[in-house]
Amino acid sequence: MTSHVLPLRRLFSVVNGGTPTSEPENWGGEVPWATPADFSGRLTEVTTTRRTLTPSGARSGSVVVPRGSLLVSTRAPIGYVAVTGTEMAFNQGCRALVPSVAVDVRFFGYQLEARLPDLQAEGLGATFLELSSEKLSSFAVVAPPLDEQRRIADFLDSETARIDRLINLYGRLSILAAERAQRVLDEAVEKCTDLAPLRYIVRFREGPGIMAVDFQSDGVPLIRIAGLNKGEVTLNGCNFLNPDKVARQWPQFRLRLGDRLISGSATMGEVSVVRDPAVVGSVPYTGLIILRPAQEDVDMEYVEAFLQSSQFLRQIDLLKTGATMLHFGPTHLSQVRAPLPPLDEQRGIAVIASEALRHASLCEELTNRQIALLGERRQALITAAVTGQFDVSTASGRNVTEGVTV
């Protein structure tokens, strides 16, 4: 394949986007208006967008490019690429590449997708990175003859579609496993119809309001939201407090082995267990709620299962409050009603729930591994095709995807 390496400006005109003013007459018309949120890290064709402009809005505050242009996101994030499937306006988070010579835009879209790290490395800025018009227009690409561009693009359309179907299949399998686990857990919890206030089953204590002025370089760990990791409480993202001050002001918030923490704010409803002795004695930050049994015949693994059940989630969804960010605390939890079967039944429910969730977690791990492998293979395939590492006219789906476990 005879190819030239050329800057994009030799093949495309670089066009900047914009956003009209908020006047109603600028918005809600028939002109699609793309932002980086309308496309992803894989080359896609975009024909519809989340927001639209009127013709006057497009003229006054944006710009319309023809069908068959490339849109490149140039900030937050840099390097996502899409082909316009219709005439389209776009905001200042994108730049358009409008062909100025005969090209197959798919070929260059795939090439830019494969070179995402190179595009991101060209970003500049003090507060946020942005890929400038100059940097984009100077970006060097491989430019084979037009007929070769079309052959490679046709080949990649076919092969990436096959890989994408497999990726979507694995993603669906993971979702189905999670849904099945939730059904099993819910059925186990809902077998008991005798309900009691949750406050009779567990005690709640929300972490104290601690100011940044109390932080120091070492001492008693202060567990943050980042410390709730895959069902366990860790020291990730923790700050530290003066041990003497903790002993005087917050001794009742010291964590113990087996304590459960539930997040009432950012990762709302996530439950984690204190299993690591290194965490014992830590103090949870506000928004994290300590759960401990309120009576002897309570199995906390059963409580944990209930807190992951649809029955609990439905109730807390009605109770949570907040003007800017929804949250819940001990007051809301005290209004929740929970099944309270005998202790041996609690333990049986906990075993069923644990096994169902373990199976779903294993399925997620395996499918994520396959999705990652397929994604790597997809990227390698695109790179090899656009750089001429193999002849696409003789390649077949069987040999180019060889080595991928499916």
UniProtKB/TrEMBL annotation:
Regions that span the bilayer: none
Primary enzyme class: hydrolase
Keyword Methyltransferase: no
Gene source species: Streptomyces lateritius
Keyword tags: DNA-binding, Endonuclease, Hydrolase, Nuclease, Restriction system
Superkingdom field: Bacteria
Residue ranges of domain Type I restriction modification DNA specificity in the record: 10-161
Family that this chain belongs to: Belongs to the type-I restriction system S methylase family.
GO MF: endonuclease activity; hydrolase activity
Name listed for the protein in its UniProt record: Restriction endonuclease subunit S
Gene3D superfamilies: DNA methylase specificity domains (3.90.220.20)
EC annotation from Swiss-Prot or TrEMBL: 3.1.21.-
